[in-house]
Amino acid sequence: MKQTTREWQQLDASHHLHPFTDFQALNKKGSRIITKAEGVYLEDSDGRRILDGMAGLWCVNLGYGRQELVDAATKQMQQLPYYNLFFQTSHPPAAELATLLAEITPPHLNHVFFTGSGSECNDTVLRMVRHYWASKGQPDKQVIISRHNAYHGSTVAGASLGGMKGMHAQGGLPIPGIVHIDQPYHFGEGEGMSAHEFGLARARQLEEKILELGVDKVAAFIGEPIQGAGGVIIPPDSYWPEIQRICDKYGILLIADEVICGFGRTGHWFASEGFGIKPDLMCLAKGITSGYLPMGAVMVGDRVARVLVEEGGEFNHGFTYSGHPVACAVAIANIQLMQSESIVKRVHDSIGPYLQRRWSELADHPLVGETRGKGLVAALEIVQDKQTKRRFPAELHAGMTCREFCFNNGLVMRAVGDTMIISPPLVITEEQVDELVKLARLSLDLTAAKLQE
Ligand SMILES: Cc1ncc(COP(=O)(O)O)c(CNc2cccc(C(=O)O)c2)c1O
């Protein structure tokens, strides 16, 4: 079906409702048609090459065009394209991937519940932790505490666990039994406190909330080690150890949502290791298959797995595509490539520090109030005044303006409000990091000129 860009755009506008999109605005503008990709580069229907600074949606960790992943999918598709895990059946890819995940995740995480996405992971953990406490004779321990501006997906439970007002406003969310405390966003909400004291203050809101609700009502706390879609909110070092201490003190379960942070993104296989926390449950998706096929997995810690296995009876939950065999085969090949190419070590020891060093040079730009990052995820804050950190008036849409300049200059950067984000494939080279930073600086220059018009 060879079409011109305009023809693709017309078909798309006539029939396709995009996620998180103002449909009318996009139809006026016309969608950008991405037709192929290789390494860290996309190509659009006009042949333009674009450096994918977002690895798709934080997920194409091994980059595009990895033939090993295509071969793994083809082989499994030919062998067994689908079978389910419901009828007391399993298949080799599911058993092999579960074993591999138990090996590469922290030592107390030895059981896997497969899903089809990150949102489905979070729906799973909500039901799982409530079932866990009910199985222990404490059915009233139902509440899950999350954070404002968290992102945990778009299903009803995922969006409710998330803390995004715009999502809660559509569909009558959050559902009961989910409450939110403030996020550890020092740049935006630090109120003049040092990072250390701010991290403790925000973590201690968890203890206040537990005591307000009653320990006998609280099932778990959920958090992204680094909040991704909320704007790459990297908590102060004092934050996570205090959260862990409070969870341990009151015996509530700790859920780490590593859909973005997992699989090497922060320079560790899993960010929980880097932040020194020991989650009872860990949600994984995105990088598990480098985005080549949809997959999610909930890692279940021994404390929870023992109760579910020995006392839980049948856990009435699961999905048609839980542990899809082809997705499992691609995930196995993906993880094995990460191991054989020492991807995580390279992020931790070389390309991660290199990117963070080059990225931090942008802090001298007149528009930039702060740069921050860890491993191969980074952000910068666009401000009108560097000293006071005053933002531009919202109606100027500084972030979206910068994002458009990026695209037009051949770079994908994500804008969350006036925070610009990068999360490139983990295989990016130093030369490509240089190109990314150069294009980012050019886009900031163009944005500054536009905002001063
Ligand atoms: C931490 C976290 N948890 C759960 C999900 C949901 O995963 P699924 O999408 O596979 O159901 C996510 C997904 N994160 C996500 C998804 C789509 C867009 C963006 C963005 O930053 O624009 C971020 C996520 O970042």
From TrEMBL:
<dbReference type="InterPro" id="IPR005814">
    <property type="entry name" value="Aminotrans_3"/>
</dbReference>
<keyword id="KW-0663">Pyridoxal phosphate</keyword>
<keyword id="KW-0808">Transferase</keyword>
<dbReference type="InterPro" id="IPR015421">
    <property type="entry name" value="PyrdxlP-dep_Trfase_major"/>
</dbReference>
<protein>
    <submittedName>
        <fullName>Aspartate aminotransferase family protein</fullName>
    </submittedName>
</protein>
<keyword id="KW-0032">Aminotransferase</keyword>
<dbReference type="InterPro" id="IPR049704">
    <property type="entry name" value="Aminotrans_3_PPA_site"/>
</dbReference>
<dbReference type="InterPro" id="IPR015422">
    <property type="entry name" value="PyrdxlP-dep_Trfase_small"/>
</dbReference>
<dbReference type="Pfam" id="PF00202">
    <property type="entry name" value="Aminotran_3"/>
</dbReference>
<dbReference type="GO" id="GO:0008483">
    <property type="term" value="F:transaminase activity"/>
</dbReference>
<dbReference type="InterPro" id="IPR015424">
    <property type="entry name" value="PyrdxlP-dep_Trfase"/>
</dbReference>
<comment type="similarity">
    <text>Belongs to the class-III pyridoxal-phosphate-dependent aminotransferase family.</text>
</comment>
